[in-house]
Amino acid sequence: MKNIVFLIIAMVNTCAVYPQAPAIEWEKTYGGPLTEFGYSIEPCDDGGYFLCGWTRANGVDVSGFHGTKDIWVVKTDSVGTLVWQSCLGGINYEESYHGQQCPDGGYIICGFSDSDSGQVGANHGLQDCWIVKLDSAGSLQWERSLGGSMNDLANSIIPTNDGGYAFTGFAGSSSGDVSGNHGNGDCWVVKLDSAGNFQWQNCLGGSNPDNGWKINQTADGGYIVGATSSSIDGNVVGNHGGGDIWIIRLNASGSIIWQKCLGGSGSDIMRDMRITSDAGFVIGGYSNSVDGDVSLNQGAYDYWVVKLDSSGTLISEKTFGGPGNDYGQSVRQVLDGGYIVAGYTNSVGGDVSINHGFNDYWIIRLDQNFNLLWQKSLGGSSFDFGTSVLQSSDDGFVVFGYSSSLDGDITVHNGSTQESDFWMVKLLPESTVSVRDLNGVEQNEFSLYPNPVADRLIIEQRKSMIFIDAIYNIYGENCFYPSMLTVNGSQIILELSSIASGFYFARLKDSKGQFYFSKFYKE
């Protein structure tokens, strides 16, 4: 790999207060003449982005449409220019809720299909979970329909450390690939091998509906699953009433290690979950409860952010919003240890300073203790739905979703105001973050080599004692655990053969408490 850029980012004060939200650097619209809904954005190893959702027609940016409704995926470069797009599906209905880049440079996508035509090879009945693997240029490599005779759908998918894939979603079936359903639909967890062949499945839930929304793999090879549950029996213990956020820790074979219900007597809805740098978990969603685990409600639904430790113990929680409805959809830990949260709001007041009309994207920036650092509304006079957010490689933020506005912050719209487009917005970096290259003063503190690295990464200490406490992949997930590390004199040696190929950030700290983030590439 040529010209690997090596960046050192010095965080002088990790608890700084940002009096003003970052301004828009650029914004991009993608779509055709009819409706597009965008649900997930994930980073790519070339600095670009991978967008997932669905579309209803050919035209403008959309080509290759199969009929009725297709999964639509878009690959962009680092400044949002469309590189390629692909319509995926058959004659009937397909939707995608999540997709991301794989270690081989291709992409894995999940959603549902009720077709048995076009690119869809089979259908078990009604909606099936549909898993699609693309190569790096967006061409179809393989696809799998999984489910039974009822409605089944997949909400979140990940590459696993054995080269396979795992997904979670909803199983309404009790036939075909689905066994052990507790009734009225379960959170369904499925493990596939590298070619998409079925390995194992587990239905999780009780006699009421339970839906899996997010899956991540833990350092021990197991899984953490975020779901919404309205059950009070079966696998579900401790439901507070209504619907609860339900977190389930599984071992590598899919068996439950522990589970935790979070919420109050109202409705508490799971939307996102990430593994944090301390091996705990941060959860994002929304709640209208005023009791139980929920300490405050500001009116209707609020964003609700929850932090658990690695054993599922509740460490902290906080709501954010105004007098209207505020629907938190996406949360990620950022490099200074704080969090970025996005969704949409129709509030004006409380934590929400302005609203452009109907629903706006709403982004909030939190410190490590969930204190609000800044907030920002984005949109126009129609409906704007933020669904996913991430930190960009320059320490700005990118938020994604769909919009039917053609004014305000939106400069281009491909359909009428009755239709929506994918809409991506890039915010500038926060002004307190300084970025320096190897010619800066940090070069005298330590060096990191080789870059790219095959198996062993060496950090050579120079003037200061350097400590390492995290290795983040491009999805913001911590991949470091202590057994990777040995110390030999002035050298910190990291054994990285167990992690996948791709870009990573090593978070380092010196004896004065100053943080550094070093970017490297694992071959």
Topology:
Elements: E1 8-11, E2 24-30, E3 36-43, E4 49-55, E5 70-76, E6 82-88, E7 94-101, E8 107-113, E9 128-134, E10 140-146, E11 152-159, E12 165-171, E13 186-192, E14 198-204, E15 210-217, E16 223-229, E17 244-250, E18 256-262, E19 268-275, E20 281-287, E21 302-308, E22 314-320, E23 326-333, E24 339-345, E25 360-366, E26 372-378, E27 384-391, E28 397-403, E29 421-427, E30 434-436, E31 446-449, E32 456-461, E33 466-473, E34 485-488, E35 491-495, E36 502-510, E37 515-522
TL;DR?
The chain is an all-beta fold. It has strands spanning 8-11, 24-30, 36-43, 49-55, 70-76, 82-88, 94-101, 107-113, 128-134, 140-146, 152-159, 165-171, 186-192, 198-204, 210-217, 223-229, 244-250, 256-262, 268-275, 281-287, 302-308, 314-320, 326-333, 339-345, 360-366, 372-378, 384-391, 397-403, 421-427, 434-436, 446-449, 456-461, 466-473, 485-488, 491-495, 502-510, 515-522.
